[in-house]
Amino acid sequence: MADTAIKVHVQDLHKSYGNTEVLKGLNLDVKNNEVVCMIGPSGSGKSTFLRCLTDLEVPSKGQIVINGYDLSDAKTNIDLVRENIGMVFQHFNLFPNMNVLQNITLAPIQLKKMTPAKAEKTARDLLDQVGLADKATALPTALSGGQQQRVAIARALAMHPKIMLFDEPTSALDPEMVGDVLDVMKQLARDGMTMIVVTHEMGFAKEVADRVVFMADGLIRESGAPKDIFEHPQNPRLQDFLNKVI
Ligand code: ADP
Ligand code: MG
């Protein structure tokens, strides 16, 4: 088993769709408790990268090691690796016919064989943590987008993941909802969660990230401390990107 202080190890990751190569040799290590924010123009491969980490996409080439488990090793139990990764998407993908508690308890009961009573206790604690203790029996359609996204975060946390991946979690939200979701993520970061966050929220990246990674056209073009990335960008594409978004 590899060094478990490194939660995510990615080496020379390539991914092609047909003849189009969208990831062109990425290298990234994420340490325990580290928060990495990923920024970059649309189409640069950020979502594809996150999907490779959860084995939703199979790389064309390269190595991914998560929590010490090599995804390309036939002996690795991918389901177990996935249980340790929480993923939150732009579109919350809550189960529409289930109430908030049912959404959060489903996976712990089915996959972790948690008793319904224990799963509900955990779910209520998590709802408290995301500021939605009073919404336990609401259906997703009765919630605002920001509330639904906080339920999606609680649902991911209910599996006690070791790593949380976020793919533009606030991009689909009305502006007034964004702050509450970012506050939940900030608290998670303070509590020591290892996180990779694809985001257009530069304020969040500046404040919360240990490291900011800039992707363009299938490669990491620059990475560093938020201060360096935002105040002293070196790569012309990063300079251009920041001029457009800030
Ligand atoms: P980002 O998240 O940075 O906007 P994506 O990872 O979504 O970028 O996409 C990177 C590139 O890969 C884009 O050109 C996109 O059109 C292409 N792409 C993504 N998913 C697929 C797919 N399933 N089939 C073919 N092309 C895809
Ligand atoms: Mg994307």
TrEMBL record:
PROSITE patterns per record: ABC_TRANSPORTER_1, ABC_TRANSPORTER_2
MF annotations from Gene Ontology: ATP binding
SUPFAM superfamilies: P-loop containing nucleoside triphosphate hydrolases (SSF52540)
Keywords: ATP-binding, Nucleotide-binding, Transport
Location of the ABC transporter domain: 8-242
InterPro entries xrefs: AAA+_ATPase, ABC_ATPase_HisP-typ, ABC_transporter-like_ATP-bd, ABC_transporter-like_CS, MetN_ABC_transporter-like, P-loop_NTPase
Domain of life, per lineage: Bacteria
Name of the protein described by the UniProt record: Glutamine ABC transporter ATP-binding protein
